[in-house]
Amino acid sequence: MRLAVPKERRPGEARVAATPETVKKLRGLGLTIVVESGAGAGAAIPDAEYLAAGAELAPDPATTFADANIVFCVQAPLGPGEGEIDQLSLIPRGALLIGGLNIWSDPKRAEAYAQRGIDACAMELLPRITRAQSMDILSSQANLAGYRAVIEAAMEYPRAFPMMMTAAGTVAPAAVFVIGAGVAGLQAIATARRLGAKVSATDVRPAAKEEIKSLGATFVGVETEETKQAQTAGGYAKEMSEDFKRRQAELMAETVKKQDVIICTALTMGRAAPKIITAEMVASMKPGSVIVDIAADAGGNCVLTRPGERVVTENGVSILGWRNWPARIPVAASALYARNLLTFLTAFWDKEAKAPKLDANDEIVRGVLLTRGGAVVHPQFAPKPAEAA
């Protein structure tokens, strides 16, 4: 079987879906690996390293996808009108597409894959269960995003993060507030603490308080009966009531104005990011303060965030709303992402047939399988039957 690794062509994407390390292991399964020339350039992987690992190099997209049985991708392949090359039209009918397809942002992609006869696995839909942790692209990438957010905040912040005692006087530590204590938020807390900042954090989920405190940060939050059920079975935060949002906003207003740096990471699966920081809150912050909004791809947690841009407000607050934070640390992000895909394929690899065997009754397969045999099979994206008149 042939496994194709195309060059990512969506704006700002520097990652690659396979590394020389995973190419060697994929070849061990009996696969022929075809990597498009230049696919690893953004992640500092030259073509020569893929060749040394045993991959074949393809000079263009058509050659990369030719006769491919499996396609690994970081983001959804470009479709008609999305770029100079219609990658989707080049993928052979019957091929298995595995990657982060960002299906929530464009559910119509599911029907496009079905019409093309592509069996698609959207890895962002992976269930949050123990057996799937090593395949979880959202967790591996969010971890790095949380780290990178703090590093960029430190670069933007015009003062210092740690307390510094010098002969000329003492420099106070930066006050860092992390909104959302999921994977990205917890890594942001740990990184800010390592840099010497005074850290506090908030999250609506009941388990978050102890996790925040275990990292040496102070918990800030509204605790009610509602917050006890604020987490989905998949580990994501639920949409909260208007009363909770009002009480949270009052607490946030008091907290935000005392902060030097705010890291925003709050997301709800399949929905726009909750707006937590208002314009009035930003106006209350000191000049030179920094807001880093990792949730920018989903609209941002700050109402003043402009996805893809750096904004400086009238009162001198910098807001970093860069898109695709994992791609800002592409070497490490590619390494982890490639291992996630390798683990998934290996888990469902039939050694005798030397082919993937995706059992629809398996919880993991059922969670990620978007299309199969020319039909949309995922219940959340399948066409709804027409109601009887």
Helix content: 25-40%
Low-confidence stretches: none
Question: What's the CATH C level of the largest domain?
Answer: Alpha Beta
Q: In angstroms, what is the radius of gyration?
A: 22 Å
**Count of the separate structural domains:** 2
Work out the helix count. Answer: 11
Number of strands: 19
> What string gives the helices and strands in order?
EHEHEHEEHEHEEEHEHEHEHEEEHEEHEE
Structural class: alpha/beta
CATH topology of the largest domain: Rossmann fold
Shape: globular
Descriptive tags:
389 residues, alpha/beta, Rossmann fold, 2 domains, six-stranded parallel beta sheet, 11 helices, 16% strand
Description:
With 389 residues, the protein is α/β, with parallel strands linked by helices. The chain folds into two domains: 2-125 and 330-374, Rossmann fold; 143-328, 3-Layer(aba) Sandwich (Rossmann fold). It is 29% helix and 16% strand. The chain has eleven helices and 19 strands. It has helices at residues 20-28, 47-52, 61-65, 108-116, 137-156, 183-194, 208-214, 242-256, 279-283, 330-347, 363-368; strands spanning 2-5, 32-36, 56-58, 70-73, 96-99, 119-122, 164-166, 169-171, 175-179, 198-202, 218-219, 261-264, 290-293, 310-312, 318-320, 349-350, 355-356, 371-372, 375-376. The strands form five sheets. Strands 11-10-9-12-13-15-14 form a seven-stranded mixed beta sheet, covered by helices on one side. A six-stranded parallel beta sheet has the order 3-2-1-4-5-6, with helices on both faces. A two-stranded antiparallel sheet has the order 7-8. The protein is globular. The termini are far apart.
